Amino acid sequence: MAANIVTFAGSAGDDAMKKTSVAGKAYASFRICHTEKRGDLEPIHTWINAVAFGGWADYAGTIKKGDNVTVVGSLSTSSKKRVDGTFDNFVSIVVTQHMVVTPKKPAIEAQEKEPPAAKKVPSTFSEFDHIPF
Fold it and tell me: Which domain holds residue 51?
């Protein structure tokens, strides 16, 4: 038995675009970038398009650029004809099973704070003489 199931996680490249198809079905499309860090080498960025339909479209429509996104679905291919008659081919994930969106944390502005007051450290053991043990 063959299975077409893929999980992809990364950061949203843009805000999701929520639309309605010609058939009247709601869908949302968005791009996800997974960054693989490789020590001292340049990181590798892998981009993939994702699309969600129905109830998933409502949820996906909340995605904002930079949000952490994990999707589980199936791979789908499509093509678009260029003006010169050639075709561009695309691979997308159609969300069918699972999606988690964790909003990007807002940047915390640097605030100047005074360092915490240093605790007084006894200079001699005689300062501990009042301890009953």
Answer: 6-107
- Count other C-beta atoms under 10 Å from residue 80's C-beta: 8
Task: Give the total number of structural domains in the chain.
Answer: 1
pLDDT tens-place string over residues 103-114: 887 655 444 444
pLDDT for residue 1 is more than 90: no
Residue 107 pLDDT: 55
Is residue 125 in a domain? no
Closest CA to 15 of 105, 109, 104: 104
Provide the CATH number for the domain around residue 31: 2.40.50.140
